[in-house]
Amino acid sequence: MGEEPIFLTRAAEGLDRRGFSLDEVEKMIAAGVIDADERFELIEGEIVPINPQAMPHLLMKGRLAWALKSPAAADLDVVQDATVVLGSRSFFDADILVFRANRTRRYVSPEDVLLAVEVADTSHARDLRTKAPRYGAAGVAELWVVELNERQTYVFRGPGTAAWDAPARVGFEAPLAPLFLADAQIRLSELV
Predict the structure, then answer these.
(1) Is the model's pLDDT at 78 over the cut of 60?
(2) How many other CB atoms sit within 10 Å of the CB of residue 99?
């Protein structure tokens, strides 16, 4: 059995770049090439640094995770900064993940994710244009992009359908309920 061929990505200027797989990234971390505490995501084989988290981002993330955890079923995990693997060449560290606990897996898989949340204050373009389509293509059931500057949440549902491409926009004052918890009435204005 031969080695996996080198994977290339193409940068905006048209030049090829060497892409990486999850397995290769884990080996680089083990070898000390990448620091184990370094914050990044793997997007289509490219290692992409994550911005530092400002206080409004941290507060919304923590408060929303708590609001989701309180009424969630006991067999669901609600965690912050969790890695979801979307394939061998992509993984994201979602701000909040709600998923079915499966302790036999090393990482969270898209089919276990009931809700992924990305809080955007400086990452609006990346969350909506880069990450949202990949979450949908991987089959994540629901994605919220909580846009702090606009004070609205982009709600993506129905992965693999036209509905995913046209997210609902819910203002912070309006009630918001995840699919897995239809009776919830979360108002993000109360969490800011």
Answers:
(1) yes
(2) 24
